[in-house]
Amino acid sequence: MSATKEFKAPVTKRKQKEEEDFPRGGASGLTPLEYKEIAHQADTSLFSEPGSKTPAAAGSEPAKKKRKPTKKTANSEVSFENSFDKKKLNVEILSFKRLTEGTKLLGCISGISHGRDSDLPELIVSLPNNLTGFVDISELSDELIQAAGDTLPDLKEQYFIGQWVQCVIIGLQYGASGGAAASGTDKQRRKIILSLKPFIVNAGVKPVDIAVGTFVSGAVKSVEDHGYIVNLGISGLHGFLKNSEAKMYQRIKNNDKPLAVGQVLTFSVLSMESNKKTVQLTVDAMKVSKALLGDKFSFSEVGSIMPGNVVETHITEIQDIGAVGKFMGHFDATIDYFHTSKGMITSKKEIEETLKVNDKVRARVLYIDLASQPTRIGLSNAKHVMGLTQPNTTESELGSKVFPGKAIPIGRSFETVTVKRIDPRHGLLCSIDGVDIPAYVHISRVADEHLANVSATGKFRVDSTHRGVVLGYDPVDGLFQMSLQESMVDQPFLRIEDIVVGSVVKGTVAKVSDKGVIVSLAKNIRGFVPLLHCVDSAVTSSTKKHVDEKFKEGKSIKCRVLSTDATEGRVILTCKDSLISSKNPIFTSLDDITPGSLSDGVIVKVNAHGCIVSFFNNVKAFAHISELQETHVNNLSIFQPGQVKTCRVLEVNSAEQNMKVSFKKSSEVDLGSVEVGSIHKAKIITIKKDLIHLTLKPSETKAVIHATHLSDHIGEQADRIFASLKEGMIISDLVVLSKDETRGSVMVTKKPILVLAAKEKKLITERAGLKQGHVYPAFVRQVANFGVFVEFANGIEALAFRHSLSDASEAAFVRNQSVLAKVLRVDPIDGKTEVSLKPSDVSSSESVVFQGEFLAAFFKQLERLAKKADSTVSVGACTLADVKTVGNDEWTISYGGNKTASVAANQLKEGKTKAGFKCAAKVLDVDFEQDSIDFTLKDSLISAEETKEAKANKFSTANISKDLTSLAALQKAQGTVEAVVELVKDDYLVLSIPEVNNMIAFAATRSLNNRKDRFIGYKTGEKVKAIVAYVPKSQGKGQAAERVILSIEQASVSPRNGAAKEAKKGTSGIAEFEDVKEGSIVSARVANIQLTGMDVHLGGKVFGRIHLTNLADTYAPSETLLKNFKKGQLLKCLVLQVDTSNKKIDLSLRPSRLAPENHAVVHDPEVKGFSDLAAGGILQGYVSNVADKGLFVALSHKLSGRVKIAELSDDYLKDWKSHFTVGQVVKAKIVNVSEAHHQIELTLKASQIDPSIKAIQTLADFTKGEKVKGTIKAVKDIGVFIKIDNSTVSGLCHISEISENHVPDVSKLYAIGDPVKAKILDIDMEKKRISFGLKSSYFEEGDAEIGEDEDDEDAEGSDEELEGASDEEDIEMGEDDSDAEHVEESDEEVDNIFAGHDDSDSEDAEEEEVEEETKVADDDSDVEMTDAAPLAVASGFNWDGKDDAEEDTKSGDSDSDDDSDDERSNKKKKAKKQAVVVQDDTADLESQAPQVATDYERLLLGSPNSSYLWINYMAFQLQLSEISKAREIGQRALKSISFREEQEKMNVWVALMNLENTFGSADTLEEVFKNAVQTCEPKKIYLQLVKIYERSSKIELATELYTTMTKKFGQSSKVWTGFGHFQLHHGNLEAGRELLQRSLKSLPKRKHIKTISKFAQLEFKYGEPERGRTIFEGVMSNYPKRIDLWSVYIDMEVRNGEQDAVRRLFARVVSLKLSSKKMKFFFKKWLAYEKDNGDEESVEEVKRRALAYVESLSA
User: Is the dihedral of CA 361, 362, 365, 371 positive or negative?
Assistant: First the structure.
């Protein structure tokens, strides 16, 4: 495998996966898992007699030597039936105890968050049988890390909850006690560590087993023009994903983005290319879920089976908890009762009904455990697993595809939970009333009391019903996890998040201390009442006595919640009666507080300047000394902490998080000189946020105007006007709306319709002025779920109920929107007024003038904002135009010299016209924003007089003044005119009035009371009836904004013919509102695109709305979603809702709506109503409004949630508005849901959304005696300054607190940036100071786990590496025994055939001979160099080279070892190898977990000869980028380690060479190398350096060094074979082959056979198998009885895959005259091969041959 890493697959059931050619004879590259598996197989004797004890059963008894069988045994009849029996396969439920590293599983992503043990992101993966694993970002793919560089990618952009993945267990983290049986808190620390890396997941998979329909995992390696190259992690095979096969996944699952390099996906194989090296893949969800393997396909071995593949299984046995089956003829598997197609299985009978013996069912592989005996394969026949989807929670949700975990959140309780099945020792399977998905109750959650097992006849018998609460959801098993414990169900709060700040709660006193009272609120939830809040009065010396008397343990008390912190698990309460019974509003956030508000607060601190007052939710305010009482305060002692005061808010600044309050009563201010409704000029004083502070002229009265009161048009236009204002500017036409006597200021408005009403004395300033049936201008004050409150002026309000809001569509009113209100009723007693805002109700003669002002002001404001329109033109004027181009759709003309414009098709001159033709052109419209002009060339609109003046090169306005006079008369008389539609714009129509010389006029397409939907759907050329609403005084040159405004009567359309209605039908045949049906798919054309969605035209006058949340199943920023849409684009939509009463249509473009069968998993499900929301839920939405007091986030087209300023971020955002824009996607957590009040409260705080993210801590968060982690910020003579991690707190550790001994120079121990552990010695809250201690006596052994969650994975990785190394060494001690037994694999058939014919007289000698001769067969140390990773801080790099050194020692490749070929001794082999017990001097390294330099120094004092410690110390410095310090430590190690410890010194030299190779230069590496050669055995150093060069891809340097080594160590077979392996592995075949001839000239003859054999193996692996075959044949002709060579030859042919060649070899071998022991060895090997690769006939043939051989012996 050239470009892809290799991962050693676990051993299979019948033979070990041969990742290396010769696993014997030296250090092996096997993983610890493989060593454990080999050792496990070695424990089971291959030739044990029936009934003998296995190692597991025998315990620690020594193995007994096998005796020669007695005659009775030898002559007894062999029972072939028993000999063929295998260990019975039982259905088992996976548990943590049964898991082994290397197990491959099918999982489903259930969460994406930061890691529990580091700040790096990780995937949370749900596994079968309610298990959960974690995938660190470094275990996704190597391509991802390489492509990411310094910036980690956002996993949420590449993965989604509900995504199915293939994964493999690479680690099992046990509890603190270290065992799988850990309990209590240890169980919570258990962790299943997974990897998604393709080369690990697909380890052991042969290319021949990748066929059409295979389910395979891969990582995107590169992006090409036509698709993606995919790394499958399989040697010699890669995949290609075409763009067409990725398109659907990208659009639905990948945020409509292309796949990213390094992204890991599960694919299905579509086809195999003819070169057998490339497979065509698909990632389309439908194709992948329906992919099937061919009927005749069979995996070549069990190691190639991958989770996720669908296999046809033959059911062979039904057991109590599942079924046993067989697939592909010889692979046994199980299906547990959680994973049947029925869904809920309550008994064995139901299993038998669902899965019948001899039935063939399709099932998906869930997991494969290759390390178990027998191999465990789990299958699933569940519908959601087969479809790779999730089940629906209820029947009503069919088709909606709501993720069950979101549909029914944690904490939801159910009154009826019915027991359906009892697993006495495990738990209960239950059904939930109204929910289709079953639930499982673990035995620990069945009852409050401990249950050893569940009785079938007790309280929890089958069909009994109970109350339960949901604890979670398992997407792989398709089950909810529940609790039936009454204490859990009855809890008022299951989580702290459910407790509402300010609510009154009841609790029980749990403990009374000097600091306050601990109150039990619910199980596992406790609150704390500080001493300050225990009594209603101020805190005095006698307060503690009163507390002891008032609060007794066990007493029930009433409290009010002051604040909560779910992250810290903290609930603060108050028992002050005045706060509990207070009727004043509660302050919980500065965002909701307005000046003048009243609330009760508690004095917490008093100083010379005033009092600090605390409210709820940690809201604090300052009361200045001047505001404490009406008279001057002479004695501040009358104000004490603990006193409750009613406060009046003076000033609040939520951005700076400060507030000023007063204890005084409100003061009076005289504003009599300013009348409500009067018009003024004003000067701008300051502009803050969306408020403008002014002073009225000439009274100098303070005034305030809101940004939304600058225009009748709220939104972009109002924002632009606001942005154009500067301090010092003078604004005119300001109308006084109301007075604020407490502030001494007035509220003013500049809304044109209110200004017009004030000028015409129609502004309502007194309620008596309201007359029933009349229409008045107003603005929206508040929008409620039952209606809209409007205000006229002077605080006079009226209510429009919901039914009085709109005629044809759902109301869409916003605060401060200008409206017209018709008075329906005025209550004569209390003056309450009811109004109607329906456009049909307010349309009257009274409203025409205001409708005209609405559009007229629009044009005037646009002109002032643009300041770039052509000042020489005006609407209706004519000029001479030169036709430049003539097209079918439009013409281009030039005018005024060098200016150009386009003329629409419907405004062209009649008749044929060519370019260059000159004619008169009339101005229809001037677009101020686009700086363009619309002209008409129609003869019907241009009179002869206008044409004449235009040809004279003059802008003609001859008849305009006269026409304006005529129209003014019509306006006054409320007369109507007939107009013709000339142009249709987004916000208005351009019309001509034929009866007034084709005067150009304009009409709004939206009204004051209907801003959302265009109520006009006319086409150009249509005639309409209209009322003259506004006539300018003049319309001369440069007055482009002065226009005639008409108000159209909607019922005035005059159809041209009977086909007009059909002509207006859309592509879906829709002409009227009644044609639209819910659930139907219709065609629509984009009419308008806004930041919050799109308006679409369905046909006729029918329009619909597509909200942002209905554009896609995966949310993305609005600009990203909307950039692919254009006006006029034709779309297919699904009708979501038709509101007949309000004439409103909501549509959806979600693919899951349009084609639900193709889109099972939806990344962002629809929020249909309040039932889909629950406190604590996490979801995404779009910012719909950025208001003064926070954000509004749209969760659907109907629902929006509010985010207060305090909930926007964990960090302080000074200018928070700049961080959010309308249309922005945000992830939020639901804080509170009130359907009654139609309110949804959200938070965007990362610490609330993801509990693993901790908020920044302050000094108040720490306590004296606490042990913390920190960083050295400064080193001074008096000590060191330490900053606590994840906080703003820093303080001094005095020099006397650094060490137990005197420290003369602090700088020698610590440097800036060093991480340290410290103990808090003292905290002074008043001075804001903290003191630390670093003495070792302050810490115990358990303190090494401080900050466990913050430990980075670099350290964790090194620990795992070191543990793996030690395991490997232990296993290698017994390597020879295990390898010898592995060659003779267990096969009872051959044992029985050979029974009594084992040539027992020479049995021991034969065993030794077989073992000795198979050494070559198992020795791969010379062929496969150890594949270690290059030097990196966080890698699994083997620093010390210990394996490599041992390889030299064990491989027999040194000169002395090479002689061993001639010095074999039976006596030496008979002696049993004893394991060498080595004293571990660094045993405390893991328990004390060194974190800082001083920790390493302390350990090295006790173990100066440990290269292990020295090298880890070097790695620690590299993590801090201290390369020079790492070098210095290496040199110190060489000086400190005793000269007798050669291997320890060798390890350090290798580490130094690795360091210089990665971070140094060629010169520094050469210097280290030369020094190492002088100190250590030269050949070992040369071999280590050449491996370093190979790992770092320095091919030329490696080649040069190998050349030198062949000259320097020419008699070493290891050097020659290593060089040959290097050349052949890198494709230099001829150069590698030449080395064989050269080596034979240099090597002693005794080493020739070994060397020739290994070069033959290299030919099989990297060169030409035929050449390797020729070499072996030459050797075997000279040494026909060397079974080691025959074994190697056979193994090479087996790997080559030519079955005929393998069988010929076996036939040749068994025909030789060998001893019965050797023949037995080969017959077993042949039989094992046929069982894996042949059929029943071939297996029987081997048995027949073996029997014939035995019979020949008897003869």
Answer: positive
Q: Which residue has the higher pLDDT, 1389 or 1199?
A: 1199
**Inter-CA distances, 507 with 543, 551, 557, Å:** 21, 12, 6
Q: Tell me the chain's radius of gyration from C-alpha atoms.
A: 43
Residue 1082 has pLDDT above 80, yes or no: yes
Bond from prior residue into 121 cis (ω within 30 degrees of 0): no
Confidence of residue 1310 (pLDDT cuts 50, 70, 90): confident
How many alpha carbons lie under 13 Å from residue 1649 in its C-beta half-sphere?
A: 18
Q: Residue 387: is its pLDDT beyond 80? A: yes
Q: Which two tokens stand for residue 309?
A: 């593949």
Q: How far apart are CA 1710 and CA 1722, in angstroms?
A: 7
Task: Say what the pLDDT of residue 183 is.
Answer: 39
From residue 1744, how far is each of 364, 812, 948, 1721 by CA, in Å? Answer: 38, 88, 117, 16
Task: Please give the helix or strand (H or E) that residue 1701 lies within, else none.
Answer: helix 1699-1710
- 1227 SS3 class: strand
Query: What angle do helix axes 1648-1662 and 1683-1696 make, rounded to 10 degrees?
Result: 10
Vertex 32, ends 29 and 35: CA angle to 5°? 80
Any residues with CB less than 8 A from the CB of 429 and at least 6 apart, and which?
344, 345, 346, 419, 420, 421, 422, 423, 438, 439, 440, 441
Domains of the chain, earliest start first: 96-380 (no CATH), 411-489 (2.40.50.140), 496-662 (2.40.50.140), 708-846 (2.40.50.140), 847-1054 (2.40.50.140), 1064-1158 (2.40.50.140), 1170-1249 (2.40.50.140), 1259-1350 (2.40.50.140)
Q: How far apart are CA 1735 and CA 1741, in angstroms?
A: 10
Q: For position 1409, what pLDDT does the model report? A: 46
Q: Do the Cβ atoms of 981 and 989 come closer than 8 Å?
A: yes
What confidence category does residue 117 fall into, taking pLDDT thresholds of 50, 70 and 90? low
Greatest Cα pair distance, the chain, in angstroms, is: 136
Residues in Cβ contact with 1471 at an 8 Å cutoff, skipping those fewer than 6 apart? none
pLDDT exceeding 70 applies to what percent of the chain?
81
Res 432 pLDDT > 50: yes
E strands present in 1078-1212: 1081-1090, 1093-1099, 1102-1107, 1130-1139, 1144-1148, 1178-1187, 1190-1194, 1200-1204
The 10s digit of each residue's pLDDT in 1037-1070 is 555 667 899 888 654 444 333 333 443 444 456 7
| DSSP code for 956 | B
Over range 168-173, report the average pLDDT: 92
Rounded to 5 degrees, φ, ψ at 166 are -95, 135
The string of DSSP letters for 413-447 reads EEEEEEEEEEETTTEEEEEETTEEEEEEEEGGGT-
User: Sign (positive/negative) of CA torsion 1350, 1355, 1360, 1363?
Assistant: negative
Quick one: tokens of 442?
């673990």
Q: Could you report the per-residue pLDDT of 1506-1562, keeping only the tens digit for each?
A: 888 889 888 888 888 888 888 999 998 888 888 778 888 889 999 999 998 888 888
pLDDT(1628) > 80? yes
> 866, 896, 867, 865: which is closest to 879 by C-alpha?
896
Least confident window among 251-265, 460-474, 1492-1506: 1492-1506
Residue at 920: amino acid letter: A
d(CA 662, CA 1668): 96
Using CA of residue 381, residue 387, residue 389, residue 390, what is the dihedral sign?
negative
Q: Which helix (H) or strand (E) holds 606?
A: strand 598-607
The helix (H) or strand (E) run that includes residue 740 is strand 730-740
